[in-house]
Amino acid sequence: MNYYSTNGKAPQADLKKAVVKGLAEDRGLYMPERIEKLPKAFFDEMKNMSFQDIAYNVASNFFGEDVDADALQDIVFDTLSFDCPIVKVEDNIYALELFHGPTLAFKDVGARFMARLLQYFLRVAPSGAVGGSVNVLVATSGDTGSAVANGFLGVEGIHVYVLYPKGKVSPIQECQFTTLGKNITAIEVDGVFDDCQALVKSAFMDEELNRHMMLTSANSINVARFLPQAFYYFNAVARIQEMFNVQRSTFNDVVMCVPSGNFGNICAALFGHEMGLPIKRFIAANNANDVFYEYLQTGKYNPRPSVQTLANAMDVGDPSNFARIYDLYGKSHERISSLISGATYSDQQIADTMRRCYQETGYVLDPHGACGYQALKDGLRPGEVGIFCETAHPAKFKEKVDQILGTDIDIPERLQAFMRGEKQNVEMSKDFQDFKQYLLKQ
Length: 442
What we know:
Elements: E1 2-5, E2 13-14, H1 15-21, E3 30-32, H2 40-45, H3 51-63, H4 69-79, E4 86-90, E5 93-97, H5 107-124, E6 134-139, H6 143-152, E7 158-165, H7 171-178, E8 184-189, H8 193-205, H9 207-212, E9 215-217, H10 223-226, H11 230-244, E10 254-259, H12 264-274, E11 281-286, H13 291-298, H14 322-328, H15 333-339, E12 340-344, H16 347-361, H17 367-379, E13 385-390, H18 398-405, H19 413-419, E14 426-428, H20 432-440
Parallel strand pairs: 5-13, 6-7, 6-9, 7-8, 8-14, 10-11, 10-13, 11-12
Antiparallel strand pairs: 1-2, 1-3, 4-5
Helix pairs in contact: 3-4, 3-11, 4-5, 5-6, 6-7, 11-12, 16-17
């Protein structure tokens, strides 16, 4: 399958180029030229299938033309060495727990898949087709950095540079990518997430840098990072069908609510919907960075600088994947707003939701999941079943969670191991020339 740019001014690319390059030559995001519907038989049988088998069927629909079938199955099964279960929080509201992977965040799925797919292309490519090594640039507002760094840790022929905003990620999140060493370099940028993302995009467009080193991205701008995130939406619906003992044809009232920052996660869900996944509608839950919410209300997209909030991984003022959503629905505000509604919450509202949910149900929300949970509480209609993404383990935000809930939540051993490591990082201004000169010396 070929991939085209959302900006429409770059040549089409095959999957290998789309994955290795990350961003098209015209700074657009790659989109598959078509999205195939999965057969009815798959959906009828889905509730009886394992997570890995469901994911392999979905992956084959996306990548089957470009990756050997046995290799793709190995990639999928190795990626999903952990579960993404749904857990009942209260009647008709379920948490899709996406924090059971190595770094306890939803991005483990996409990062692990991309690392393995890129390794596949490096291994099977003809000599000189990709180059001797690949340098992955990734901007993070929290969990992306740790997921990507750990997904690529020790992978031969790949070096990862994680750019993160100084003082704007949680201490536990920071230690997950600054203590690894080996082929991982953490770069602390004196700015906000949008500055980090701008540095990455500018690097891709700089001819001198690209002559010097092979660059790609592992943010959700990369098709190999965001598309695999559709796997767990299919599995969530299958588990709901299994729980309610219904078939696809008699159960079409699932509402999926996704806490949204750069919008890669909900974009993956929307691609799944285009493949036939029976989700009735979607809710994009925002914190105070509510550019998309504003678009839904007005039809006008006005990106602006991000503001720092309690739900820091969603602190994005110009979400990259808006371009994909806009393109997917033919640039039609009517089509987008008829399928997706929005919600936006202040820090105080997020804290109140976390406290109330814990007191009433005993379930511990992280600040991002709290946005999703509250959006369902506010927007679920009679007869609907709501699923919200609990995107990271609450212990990753222990200081904030304990302060809000009056608890002392346990830190999983996996997180404790990161915390015992020694911080290694490079300080960087938000000026692109400084970043460029640093990379040219590598």
